[in-house]
């Protein structure tokens, strides 16, 4: 099973999630792929993700941006499982980044509107992971990410397998070029 965890104000219809889905279909493995639509509240998103991981022991995770932060918490929480995690331009301290954007928000894909509050930030802080188990992770990050400082991810995931790719941006538009590497790490290929 492969679980894709989308980022902040994103959705299952995001570019990378669809790309992975198309590849899984081409492999005849579409039934082994799930992309949950995450609630905007971190506590609710994590409850949904915990349920998925518990129903699919041994699943691999792909976490993009905020989804990478969530995936890290899951991997370290379920430390006795075989969770393997691919991180794509992951958010390392999203509570710091998002604390400056409190107020009205709109999901880029669904159009859903909500208010980002201090409670959201507190829920994110509660998910902070102090130390990681490096062997569980593959980090893919672009040095040109205009949203997140890639150096924070390189430091946080020190010791993990890392692909630090020059240039690009937060959307990781050439993600398809790395898809087989991602799926191999996840145990799909």
In short:
This protein is α/β, with parallel strands linked by helices.
SS class: alpha/beta
CATH class: Alpha Beta
The structural domain count equals 1
The CATH architecture term is 3-Layer(aba) Sandwich
The largest sheet is:
6 strands, parallel
Distance from first to last alpha carbon: 12 Å
Strand order across the largest sheet: 2-1-3-4-7-8
Write the layout of secondary structure elements.
Layout: E1 2-5, H1 15-26, E2 33-34, H2 42-55, E3 60-64, H3 66-77, E4 84-88, H4 94-99, E5 103-106, E6 113-116, H5 118-125, E7 137-142, H6 150-156, E8 161-165, H7 179-185
Parallel strand pairs: 1-2, 1-3, 3-4, 4-7, 7-8
Antiparallel strand pairs: 5-6
Describe what this molecule looks like in 3D.
Helix content is 35%, strand content 19%. By secondary structure, it is α/β, with parallel strands linked by helices. It has one domain (2-185): Rossmann fold. The protein has a six-stranded parallel beta sheet with strand order 2-1-3-4-7-8, with helices on both faces. A two-stranded antiparallel sheet has the order 5-6. Helix 1 links the parallel strand 1 and strand 2 (33-34).
């Amino acid at each position: 099973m492969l679980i894709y965890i989308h980022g902040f104000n994103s959705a299952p219809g995001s570019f990378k999630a669809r790309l992975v889905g198309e590849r899984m279909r081409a492999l005849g493995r579409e039934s082994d792929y799930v992309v949950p639509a995450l609630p905007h509240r971190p506590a609710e998103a994590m409850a949904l993700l915990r349920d998925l991981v518990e129903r699919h022991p041994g699943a691999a995770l792909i976490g993009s941006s905020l989804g990478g932060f969530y995936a890290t918490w899951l991997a370290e929480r379920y430390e006795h499982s075989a969770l393997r995690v691919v991180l794509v331009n992951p958010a390392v301290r999203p509570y710091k980044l998002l604390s400056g954007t409190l107020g009205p928000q709109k999901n880029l894909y669904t159009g859903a509107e909500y208010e980002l509050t201090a409670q959201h930030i507190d829920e994110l802080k509660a998910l902070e992971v102090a130390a990681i188990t490096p062997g569980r992770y593959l980090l893919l990050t672009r040095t040109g990410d205009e949203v997140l400082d890639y150096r924070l991810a390189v430091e946080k995931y020190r010791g993990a397998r890392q692909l630090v790719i020059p240039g690009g941006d937060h959307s990781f538009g050439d993600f398809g070029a790395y898809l087989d590497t991602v799926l191999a790490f996840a145990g799909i290929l």
